[in-house]
Amino acid sequence: MAICRADKCNAFCCRYISVHIDTPRSKVDFDEIRWFVSHENVVVYKDEENDWLVEFVTPCKFLKNNKCEIYEARPDVCREYDPDGCADSEKNIEMKIAFKKPTDVEKFVAKRWPKKKKKKRSLSEKK
Ligand code: SF4
Ligand code: SF4
Fold first, then answer.
1. Which of 8, 16, 40, 104 is surrounded by the fewest CB atoms within 10 Å?
2. Inside any domain, residue 122
3. What is the average pLDDT value for the chain, to the nearest integer?
4. pLDDT tens, position by position, 33-52
5. Total number of domains constituting the chain
6. Ligand 2 pocket check: which of 74, 79, 80, 86 to mutate, most ligand atoms within 8 Å of Cβ?
7. Which residues does residue 17 pair with via DSSP β-bridges, in sequence order?
8. Predicted TM-score of the model (pTM)
9. Does residue 121 fall inside a structural domain?
10. What is the pLDDT of residue 125?
11. What's the gap in Å between 40 CA and the centre of ligand 2?
């Protein structure tokens, strides 16, 4: 079992929350993601298991000097967190796709749904 060293990792796991979202499939879904990442400290990504998550990078209110102030009464999600699978730094989170800002989504959508070029009408067609 991995040893949890909050002093070394700056208690990274207490500094964000991630919530699963439905797999985006349509332009409307990606436009919603564009809205998500228009907000500060919000990232949307697809992880190594192809799950989609929205992440809010914001520290827990009970984290003081890298220690949990409510350790005995901490939520189950904190109790069940396994340091073996710990993402002790942002670099360790496997992201297949990551949207950090609106332009990331816009570029992705432009590539996935390229705009068709309009055919120029010839003079004879215009008559
Ligand atoms: S579980 Fe990982 S990220 Fe969280 S405090 Fe322990 S070592 Fe740091
Ligand atoms: S409740 Fe405690 S263990 Fe859970 S995220 Fe907050 S500081 Fe970390």
1. 40
2. no
3. 88
4. 999 999 999 999 999 899 99
5. 1
6. 74
7. 56
8. 0.83
9. no
10. 57
11. 22
